[in-house]
UniProtKB/TrEMBL annotation, chain A:
Pfam families xrefs: Fer4_11, Fer4_2
Highest rank taxon of the organism: Bacteria
Family annotation (NCBIfam families): MoCo_extend_TAT
UniProt-listed Gene3D superfamilies: 3.30.70.20, 3.40.50.740, Dimethylsulfoxide Reductase, domain 2, Formate dehydrogenase/DMSO reductase
Record's protein name: 4Fe-4S dicluster domain-containing protein
4Fe-4S ferredoxin-type domain segment(s): 758-788, 864-893
The organism of origin for this protein: Pedobacter polaris
TrEMBL record, chain B:
Entries under Pfam families matching the protein: NrfD (PF03916)
Keyword Transmembrane recorded: yes
Keywords: Cell membrane, Membrane, Transmembrane, Transmembrane helix
TM regions (residue ranges): 39-64, 84-104, 116-142, 162-184, 222-242, 262-282, 303-324, 344-362, 369-394, 414-435
Assigned GO CC terms: plasma membrane
Membrane topology, record value: Multi-pass membrane protein
InterPro entries, alphabetized: NrfD-like (IPR005614)
Presence of keyword Transmembrane: yes
Name listed for the protein in its UniProt record: Hydrogenase
Main location: membrane
C-alpha cells in the first residue's frame, strides 16, 4: 500500500525557502560523479581526470611501498622425469665402506645424510665409530677445493693437469729418476692394483706406505718372531683375561669399535646372566678410554713399560731376562705378579697386547702370548688384519732419496706428511728437491700447499672403491651422490696418467672384483652392491710357538727404557704421545662434530692439552689450565694448557695427536697444537714417547670441557658391584632389595599406555664411553655445533652426553671415595675407577619439565614419550631448570644463521647435511632428546604400510645403532617379548633419581667390576 | 576524622608551627608547580643514563638472543629472575602501606602511601620487563596469556606456576595502578584548581571531573576502602605465587614449603627499605620534613626489624629442615650454599638481611637518618643476594654432579639490572615533578587531630595528665623537625 502522506523534516522544507533549496542541493558536499563517469559524456568532464590522477598517485605510491618489501624468490623446479627410486621423504640406503669398516649410507633425495650399520657385515654390524658417524659432514665441507689446482691456479681444467703431469712423468721416465707414491695404508685391492699398473707403465715407481700412527712395530715383530709380516687378527671375545700394556684397544688401537664389540660380548648383561665376565688389567701411562674400562688399572711410566713386560715374561716362563725390575713402582710389581699367576691359570683364554710401536717390545709380547698359548686362540696370524701395512723405515728412506735428488715425482695419496711426520721441516726441504709434486687431496692441506698439483679427490661418499679389512673379508665403496665438485678419484687420475686400457675407475673396480674376488665366493657384482661385503671362509688360525733368544730384545728394551727415563720428575717428564679419540690422527680435524665431541676421558673439546696427574701438577707447581711450554729433546716446543688427569702416571705427561692443523679449514685450523714433531724415528720404527722439559708461561687458558665436576659425591646415581657380589646376588649394589615406599599424589590419575610404551635400558657394564652415540645423535637430530667459546660457557647442545665419574679407592680402608672434599685429602690418587653413564632425556612419566611450562610446549604422549613442541616454546627455560637430569638444551643463539658460528652450518652447502625429518630449531627455543621420534614414526608407518604389527627391532635409535657395545637397548615395554622389556626385568636395573618419583623411562644396569681381594691388594 | 582529640600519648604525624591547609598544599605542590632544582636535574640525568643503558642492553639481548647473558645449560635463570623477584618484592611495601595500613586505620600511612604506591607501580614495571626480556622468544610473550587463538585448541598450562605468576603480576599491577590513581584524584583536582593554561587542561582531564562535594568524597572513601580490601590479599598472594615459581619445582633448595611466608616477609622487608631509601632523600630535597617525620621513619624501621627477623628465622629453618629431612640432595644444597663456590653470596645475604638490621634495635640508630638510609640500602643489597642465592646456588649444583656449573654474568646481565634501576629512578623522578609525592587530601585529614600544633594547643589548654604530657614531650626529642625550646617553657 502506498502512502501519499508527506512528512516534512522541518518548517524550512515546508516553506521551501530559496535558502533551503540551495542548502538542500549541497547536503552532500561533493557527490561522487559515478553517474557522470558511467555516462559517456562523463569522460570528458573535469572531475574524473582529477580522480584518475589521485588514483594513479595513490596506486603508484602503494606499489612503490609494497615493492620495498623484498619478497624471497623460491625456485622450485618440478621433475620432468622423476629419478628412479628418489622419492622425497623416503630414504634410500646404500652399502659402502668407511676406513675399512662396512657401513650403510642413508640418502634422502640424493643427499647422503647419515651413516648406519651394514647388517650383513658380521662384527661390524654392531655399530660404527664416531668418525664414521661424523663423516657425512665432511662431504659438505666448504673448505674443500672446487677444481683441481695446477701451480696454485684456480679454475684449472683436468686436461691441463693431465698434460702437465704426463709431461713431467715422461721427463722423469726419461731421466730414469725415481717416482714415489706415498700413501697411508692402502687397504683397497683395486687401488693397489692401480698402483701396480702405474708401476708397470713407470717402472721406477715405488709405493711407500706410512701411517701417522704406525703399527710397523707389530708387523716387524711378527716377521721377526713368526716370519709373517702382518698385523694379526685379535679376538678379544675369546679372551677371559685381557692384559693390555698401553694399548687403547677400545678406542684408537687398530680397530676400536670392532674390539669393543668383541670385548663387551664377554662383559655385557647377556654374558653376566650366564655368570661370565672377562677380567681386564691395564698398565698404562695416560688415562685411556680402555684404561677407564679396565677392572684393574695400574699407572706406569713409559720407561717402565719395557721392564714391566720383561718382569711379566720372567714370571710366566720362569726365565730370567735382564732388565725386569720395577724398583720404583711397587704397585705395578705386585700387579704383574698377580697377572702372571692368572695368565698361567688361563692359558689359551688370555690375551696380552701392547700399544708400543717398538719392534723389540712387540717381540717380547709375542713371546708372552706364545707362552700363554694365545696363538690360534685369541690371536690369529693366518687371517691377518689389513688395516695397517705402513712401514716407517720406507718413509724415512724416502726422505733420504728426496734429499739426494733421486726422486723426480712424488704423489701423496691420503697422506699429509707436512703435518703428521716426525721431522716436518726436513720433509719440506727434501720435498722442494722433487720436480713433480702431486697431492691427491680434497683441499689445500699442509702437504698440498707444497705441491705443484692438487688433484682434488672426492669424498668416499662420492667415490667407487673397495676395502680388504681382513684376509678374505672384502667390502665395497660405492658412491651415494655424484661428485659435488669437479673432483676425480686418485685411482682414476693414476689410470689416466699411466694411459691404462680401462680409465674409468668404476669399470676398473668392477673388472677387478669380477676377475679376482667374486668368483671365489660365487657371487655377482649386483649381489655385492646389495650386501656390501664378501666374506670368504676364514682359514683355521694356527698355533705358533716362540723359540728365539730374547737377550738382544731385552737389551734393546732396557736401552730404550733408559733413554726415556731421563726425566727428573718435576720439570723434566716422560711425554706420552697418543691418538685422541675424537681427533685420531688429525685427518678429520675440520669436522665440527668431532671437534665438539668431548674426549671420553677428559671431556675436553676443541683442544689438546698436557695431562698431568693431580700430584704431579702439585709437585711441578701448576694449576689446571696453566699454560706451560713443552720442549722436546729435538728442540720442538709448544705451549699447552695443563689438564689435571687422575690416573696419569707420576713423572709423565700426555699429549694428544691430531691437533694443531694449520691448513684444513674453518673449523679445524689452529685448534690445539701439533704433537707429531715430538715423535721420533729409531730402530726402524716411530716412537710415541720422549722426554720433555716443561716450564710455566704465567698464562692461563681455560679448556672447553663439557663436564667439570669429576666425582659423583657418593650419590646413588651410580650403582656398582663387584663380580663376586653379583654372582652371589644379581641385584647386588642396585638398591633393588630395599626400595622405599612410593608416595604418589596422583594414584587415581594413572595414564594407561595402551599402545606402545617406548623405553630404554642402558647397560653400564657394556658402555665404554667412546662417544660414537653422541655424534650419531648430533647427525640424526641436526644438533648445532656451538664452538669452543660456547662450550666453555657450558652451552654445548648435545642431547645425549656421557657422564664420566672418577672414584678413588682408599688403600687403607678399602672403600671407594667419591666425594670431592674427601678426595682432596687423599694421598694416593693412582687407584682410580671410572664409570661412564650415558645421560639423555629420561622421558619421565611424571616429568617435572612438563608441569612447569606455561605454554604446554612440552607434553607427554600416550606412548611414554616426553614431547617438545619447538614452535610453541617461548623460552622461559623453566623446564631446563626443573630437569633433575639437566638434559634440556636451550638455543642461546641462532646457530645455523649467525656469522659467529662459522665453523658449522652457516652456509647453504653444509646445510645439505641436515636431516629433513628433523626441524632445525630457532634461537630462544628449548630442545632435547626426542627418542628419535622421526624414527619411531617411520617404523610405525612402514609396519602400517606392510599391514603388520611393529616388531621388536624395527625401530632403532640413532645412538643405539651406532653403539658397537650394544649398551643401549630401546623398545616397547608393553611388548613382553621385546629385548628391552626383558632387559628391564634384570635385577641389575635401577633408575637414576628414582627416589624423587619422576618415574624415568630409562633403566640403567649396575656397573659390575671384576675385582676381588687380590686385585685390591695390588694398590694397597 | 577531625572533631575529636587524639590521645596525647600518640606522637604527632605532622610537625611544625602554623601549618594551615593552604600551607600543606603549598608545601607539597612545591616541586610540581615550580621549575626543578639542580638536585633533581642531576638525579634525573644519572637515572636517564641508566635507563638508556637498560634500553641498549635489552635491545642487544633481543637482537642476538639470550646467549648474550651468562646463563648456561645448568643455570637457566640467574640475574634475570633475581632482578624480577627483587623488583616485585620491593613493590610490596607500597601495597602494604596503602591497603593493609588503611584497613588497620594506621594514620601515619597518609604521608607515605603516595610515594610508596608510585614505587610499587614502577617496581612492578621493572619486574615485568624482566618477565618479557628473559624469554627466549619475547615476541611471543603473549602466548602465556589465555587468549582465544587460532592455533587450534591451544591453551596455556594452568599447572605452571609461570602462568599463575602472569595472573598474579598483571592483577597486582592493575589493582595497584587503580588504587594509586583513585587516591590521586582529589590531589590532581587541587593541582588543576591552581594551574593555568595547558597544564590546567591536562590536569582537568586527569582529575576526571573531581568536584570535591560531599557525595564525591563519600564515594571516594568507599572506593578506597573497597580497593584496599581487594589489595590486601594481593600483599600475600603475589609473592606467594612468585615463591611458587621455585617451591613447586623438584630442585633442592627450591622445593620448600616455607617459601610463601618467607617470601612475603622478605618482600615487605625489602619494600620498606626501598621506601626509606627514596623518602629519606625526597624528604630532605623537597623540604617535607614536617610531613614525613621521625615517627614515620622509626615506624618503618620497626617493620624492617620484624620482617628481617622473620626472614632470618626462615633461613635457619631451611637449614634445620634440610638436615631433618634426611634428603642428601637437600642437605648438600644447603651446605653448598654456605660453604660452596658461592659462599660469599650466602654470607653477604646473611650479613645484610639478618645481622645488620638487628642494629635497628638501638633507638639511636633507628632514629638516625644517615644510619637508617645506609641500612636501607644494605637491606636491598641483601635482598638481591637472597634471590641470587636461592636461584643460582640451587641450580648450579643440583642432582647430577656431571652438570654442575658456575654462572658468570656478562656485561649485558649487569647492564640490564643496573639499567632497570635507572629506569625505576627515571620514572620516580618524573613522578615527583608531575604529581604530589604526598597525598595532600589525606594529610590534611590529620592536621586537626594528629599534628604537633594541635597537640600543643591541647597541652596549652591544660586539661591533660602531666605525666602523659611529659612523656609526649620526651618523645619529641628524636624529631629533627621539632623545635625543642618551645616545649622547654611548658
Amino acid at each position: 500500500m502506498e502512502s501519499n502522506k508527506k512528512y516534512w523534516k522541518g518548517l524550512e522544507e515546508y516553506k521551501n525557502t530559496p535558502d533551503f533549496v540551495e542548502n538542500n542541493k549541497n547536503e552532500f558536499a561533493e557527490p561522487l560523479p559515478i553517474e557522470d563517469v558511467l555516462s559517456e559524456a562523463g569522460l570528458s568532464t573535469v572531475t574524473p581526470r582529477r580522480d584518475f590522477l589521485k588514483a594513479l598517485g595513490f596506486g603508484l605510491g602503494a606499489v612503490t611501498l609494497a615493492a620495498c618489501q623484498k619478497t624471497p624468490v623460491h625456485k622450485s623446479i618440478p621433475y620432468l622425469i622423476r629419478p628412479e627410486e628418489v622419492v622425497p621423504g623416503i630414504p634410500n640406503y646404500y652399502v659402502s665402506t668407511f676406513k675399512g669398516n662396512p657401513v650403510l649410507v642413508k640418502t634422502v633425495v640424493g643427499r647422503p645424510i647419515k651413516i648406519e650399520v651394514n647388517p650383513n657385515a658380521g662384527i661390524f654390524s654392531t655399530g660404527t665409530d664416531a668418525q664414521a658417524q661424523a663423516s657425512v659432514l665432511d662431504l659438505y665441507d666448504v673448505s674443500k677445493l672446487k677444481n683441481p689446482l695446477l701451480k696454485k691456479e684456480e679454475k684449472t681444467l683436468w686436461s691441463d693437469v693431465d698434460a702437465f703431469v704426463k709431461g713431467e712423468l715422461n721427463k722423469a721416465q726419461a731421466s730414469g729418476k725415481k717416482i714415489r707414491i706415498v700413501s697411508s695404508s692402502l687397504n683397497s685391492p683395486s687401488a693397489k692394483a692401480v698402483v701396480t699398473d702405474f708401476a708397470v707403465k713407470y717402472p721406477t715407481t715405488k709405493h711407500v706406505q706410512y701411517d701417522a700412527v704406525s703399527y710397523t712395530g707389530i708387523i716387524k715383530a711378527n716377521e721377526n718372531s713368526f716370519g709373517k709380516a702382518v698385523l694379526p687378527k685379535y679376538n678379544f671375545d675369546k679372551a677371559d683375561l685381557i692384559v693390555s700394556f698401553a694399548a687403547d684397544f677400545l678406542g684408537t688401537w687398530i680397530s676400536g669399535e670392532e674390539f669393543t664389540a668383541q670385548y663387551v660380548s664377554n662383559r655385557n648383561h647377556k654374558s653376566l646372566e650366564k655368570g661370565k665376565m672377562s677380567r681386564h688389567f691395564q698398565f698404562e701411562t695416560g688415562m685411556s678410554l680402555t684404561g677407564t674400562n679396565a677392572d684393574t688399572r695400574v699407572p706406569i711410566k713409559l720407561s717402565e713399560e719395557g721392564p714391566a713386560l720383561i718382569t711379566l715374561y720372567n714370571a710366566i716362563t720362569g726365565n730370567n731376562l735382564a732388565g725386569g725390575a720395577l724398583p720404583n713402582n711397587v704397585t705395578a710389581d705386585k700387579a704383574l705378579k698377580l697377572v702372571a699367576k692368572e695368565l698361567t691359570q688361563n692359558k689359551g683364554k688370555s690375551l696380552v697386547v701392547s700399544g708400543s710401536n717398538d719392534v723389540s717390545t712387540q717381540i717380547l709380547v709375542n713371546a708372552i702370548n706364545a707362552a700363554i698359548g694365545s696363538y690360534g686362540a685369541t690371536i690369529d696370524l693366518d687371517n691377518p688384519c689389513k688395516r695397517y701395512e705402513g712401514n716407517d723405515a720406507e718413509f724415512a728412506e724416502l726422505l733420504n732419496e728426496m734429499n739426494r735428488g733421486e726422486v723426480a715425482a712424488v704423489f701423496f695419496l691420503n697422506s699429509n706428511p707436512a703435518y703428521d711426520s716426525t721431522k716436518i721441516e726436513d720433509f719440506k726441504s727434501a720435498l722442494s728437491k722433487v720436480a713433480l709434486k702431486v697431492s691427491f687431496s680434497d683441499r689445500v692441506d699442509e702437504t698440498s700447499d707444497l705441491c705443484d698439483v692438487v688433484a682434488i679427490t672426492p669424498n668416499y661418499l662420492e667415490a667407487w672403491g673397495d676395502a680388504n679389512t681382513y684376509e678374505g673379508f672384502y667390502s665395497i665403496v660405492q658412491p651415494t651422490i655424484n661428485p659435488v665438485f669437479n673432483s676425480r678419484q686418485a685411482e682414476q687420475s693414476l689410470l689416466i696418467w699411466s694411459d691404462a686400457a680401462v680409465q674409468d675407475y668404476y669399470q676398473y673396480v668392477r673388472n677387478n672384483w669380477e676377475a679376482t674376488i667374486l668368483p671365489t665366493v660365487g657371487k655377482t657384482w649386483n649381489d655385492l652392491l646389495q650386501s656390501g661385503v664378501v666374506n670368504a671362509t676364514a682359514k683355521t688360525a694356527g698355533a705358533y710357538g716362540f723359540s728365539m733368544s730374547l737377550d738382544a730384545v731385552a737389551t734393546s728394551i732396557a736401552n730404550s727404557s733408559k733413554a726415556l727415563a731421563k726425566g727428573n720428575g718435576t720439570d723434566a717428564l716422560e711425554l706420552h704421545i697418543y691418538e685422541s679419540i675424537p681427533m685420531r690422527d688429525g685427518k678429520y680435524a675440520n669436522n665440527a662434530f668431532l671437534q665438539e665431541l668431548p674426549d671420553p676421558v677428559s671431556k675436553v673439546t676443541w683442544d689438546n692439552y698436557l695431562a698431568l696427574s693431580p700430584k704431579q701438577a702439585e709437585k711441578s707447581g701448576y694449576k689446571e689450565f696453566d699454560v706451560v711450554t713443552v720442549k722436546g729433546e729435538n728442540g720442538y716446543s709448544i705451549d699447552l694448557p695443563v689438564l689435571i688427569q687422575p690416573g696419569q702416571a707420576m713423572g709423565t705427561a700426555s699429549v694428544a695427536l691430531g691437533y694443531g692443523r694449520s691448513k684444513v679449514g674453518k673449523a679445524g685450523n689452529n685448534v690445539g697444537k701439533n704433537a707429531f714433531p715430538f715423535t721420533s724415528f729409531s730402530n726402524g720404527t716411530l716412537k710415541y714417547g720422549t722426554t720433555v722439559k716443561i716450564s710455566g708461561t704465567g698464562m692461563r687458558d681455560e679448556l672447553a670441557q663439557t663436564q667439570t665436576h669429576y666425582s659423583f659425591e657418593g650419590r646413588n646415581i651410580i650403582r656398582e658391584a663387584t663380580l663376586k657380589d653379583y654372582l652371589k646376588d644379581p641385584a647386588a649394589g642396585s638398591g633393588n632389595h630395599h626400595k622405599h615406599k612410593v608416595y604418589d599424589l596422583w594414584t587415581t590419575d594413572k595414564h594407561e599406555k595402551l599402545g606402545n610404551d617406548w623405553v630404554m635400558a642402558i647397560d653400564l657394564n657394556a658402555c665404554t664411553g667412546c662417544g660414537s652415540c653422541v655424534v650419531a645423535c648430533n647427525v640424526e637430530n641436526n644438533i648445532p655445533v656451538v664452538g669452543k667459546d660456547e662450550v666453555r660457557r657450558r652451552r654445548e647442545m648435545h642431547w645425549l652426553r656421557i657422564d664420566r665419574y672418577y672414584s678413588f679407592n682408599d688403600e687403607k680402608t678399602g672403600h671407594d671415595v667419591t666425594e670431592e672434599k674427601e678426595i682432596a685429602h687423599m694421598e694416593n690418587l693412582d687407584n682410580v675407577s671410572v664409570v661412564h653413564q650415558p645421560m639423555l632425556c629420561q622421558h619421565c612419566d611424571h616429568a617435572p619439565c612438563e608441569t612447569v611450562c606455561p605454554v604446554l610446549a612440552t607434553v607427554h604422549s600416550s606412548d611414554g614419550l616426553n614431547h617438545m613442541a619447538y614452535n610453541r616454546c617461548v623460552g622461559t627455560r623453566y623446564c631446563a631448570n626443573n630437569c633433575p637430569y639437566k638434559v634440556r638444551r636451550f638455543n642461546w643463539f641462532n646457530y645455523w644463521n649467525d656469522s659467529r658460528f662459522d665453523n658449522y652450518l652457516n652456509n647453504e652447502f653444509t646445510q645439505l647435511v641436515l636431516n629433513p625429518d628433523v626441524t632445525t630449531r630457532s634461537r630462544g627455543v628449548m630442545e632435547k632428546c626426542s627418542m628419535c621420534i622421526q624414527r619411531i614414526q617411520a617404523g610405525k608407518l612402514t609396519a602400517k604400510m606392510e599391514k603388520r604389527a611393529l616388531k621388536d627391532g624395527d625401530i632403532k635409535m640413532a645412538c643405539q645403532q651406532a653403539c658397537s657395545a650394544n649398551a643401549i637397548i630401546f623398545g616397547d615395554k608393553n611388548d613382553p617379548n621385546s629385548e628391552v622389556a626383558k632387559a628391564l626385568k634384570s635385577e641389575r636395573i635401577y633408575y637414576v633419581l628414582e627416589e624423587i618419583n619422576v618415574q624415568p623411562g630409562i633403566g640403567y644396569m649396575t656397573k659390575i667390576r671384576n675385582i676381588d681381594s687380590e686385585t685390591k691388594e695390588v694398590h694397597a | 576524622m577531625s572533631g575529636h582529640n587524639e590521645s596525647i600519648l600518640r606522637e604527632p604525624l605532622i610537625t611544625g608551627k602554623n601549618i594551615t591547609y593552604a600551607q600543606i598544599t603549598d608545601d607539597i605542590l612545591l616541586p610540581v608547580e615550580n621549575k626543578p632544582n639542580r638536585a633533581w636535574w642531576i638525579g634525573f640525568i644519572i637515572s636517564l643514563c641508566g635507563a638508556t643503558l637498560w634500553v641498549v642492553a635489552v635491545s642487544y639481548t633481543f637482537w642476538f638472543g639470550i646467549g648474550a647473558w651468562g646463563l648456561n645449560k645448568t643455570v637457566g635463570w640467574a640475574w634475570d629472575i633475581t632482578g624480577f623477584v627483587w623488583w616485585v618484592g620491593i613493590g610490596h611495601a607500597g601495597t602494604l602501606i596503602s591497603a593493609v595500613l588503611l584497613l588497620f586505620r594506621q594514620n601515619w600511612r597518609n604521608s607515605i602511601n603516595r610515594s610508596a604506591e608510585a614505587m610499587t607501580i614502577f617496581a612492578v614495571i621493572c619486574a615485568a620487563t624482566y618477565v618479557v626480556s628473559h624469554m627466549g622468544r619475547p615476541w611471543l610473550a603473549y602466548w602465556v596469556l589465555p587468549l582465544p587463538n587460532q592455533f587450534g585448541s591451544l591453551w596455556v598450562n594452568f599447572n605452571s606456576p609461570l602462568v599463575w605468576d602472569m595472573f598474579a603480576i598483571s592483577t597486582y599491577f592493575s589493582v595497584s595502578l587503580l588504587f594509586w590513581y583513585t587516591g590521586l584524584l582529589p590531589d590532581i583536582a587541587t593541582i588543576r584548581d591552581r594551574a593555568e593554561g595547558m597544564r590546567k587542561k591536562v590536569y582537568t582531564v586527569l582529575s576526571f571531573g573531581w568536584t570535591g562535594n560531599v557525595k564525591t568524597w563519600q564515594r571516594f572513601e568507599a572506593v578506597s576502602l573497597i580497593l584496599a580490601g581487594i589489595s590486601t590479599p594481593l600483599v600475600l598472594s603475589v609473592h606467594t605465587i612468585v615463591s611458587m615459581d621455585f617451591a613447586t619445582s623438584v630442585i633442592p633448595g627450591w622445593h620448600t614449603t616455607i617459601f610463601p611466608p618467607y617470601f612475603v616477609a622478605g618482600a615487605i622487608f625489602s619494600g620498606f627499605a626501598m621506601v626509606l631509601t627514596l623518602l629519606l632523600v625526597a624528604r630532605k630535597v623537597l623540604g617535607l620534613e614536617n610531613y614525613i617525620t621521625m615517627f614515620h621513619i622509626e615506624s618503618m624501621n620497626k617493620i624492617i626489624i620484624l620482617t628481617g627477623s622473620i626472614v632470618g628465622v626462615a633461613y635457619l629453618t631451611e637449614f634445620f629442615i634440610a638436615w631433618y629431612s634426611g634428603s642428601e640432595y637437600e642437605q648438600y644444597a644447603f651446605i653448598n650454599r654456605s660453604t660452596g663456590p658461592y659462599w660469599w653470596a650466602y654470607w653477604m645475604m646473611m650479613t645484610c638481611n639478618v645481622i645488620s638490621p638487628q642494629l635497628l634495635w638501638f633507638k639511636k640508630i633507628r632514629t638516625n637518618i644517615a644510619a637508617t638510609w645506609i641500612l636501607s640500602i644494605v637491606v636491598n643489597i641483601g635482598m638481591w643476594f637472597e634471590r641470587f642465592v636461592i636461584i643460582v646456588t640451587s641450580l648450579h649444583r643440583d642432582y647430577l654432579p656431571s652438570s654442575w656449573a658456575m654462572f658468570y654474568p656478562t656485561w649485558v646481565d649487569v647492564s640490564v639490572f643496573v639499567g632497570s634501576i635507572g629506569l625505576f629512578f627515571t620514572l620516580f623522578l618524573l613522578f615527583l615533578r608531575v604529581l604530589p609525592s604526598i597525598a595532600i587530601a589525606e594529610v590534611k585529614l590529620l592536621l586537626k587531630s594528629a599534628s604537633e600544633q594541635a597537640k600543643l594547643e591541647l597541652i596549652k589548654d591544660g586539661h591533660l595528665d602531666k605525666e602523659q604530657v611529659a612523656e609526649y614531650v620526651e618523645s619529641l626529642d628524636k624529631f629533627d623537625s621539632v623545635k625543642q625550646e618551645e616545649y622547654a617553657k611548658i
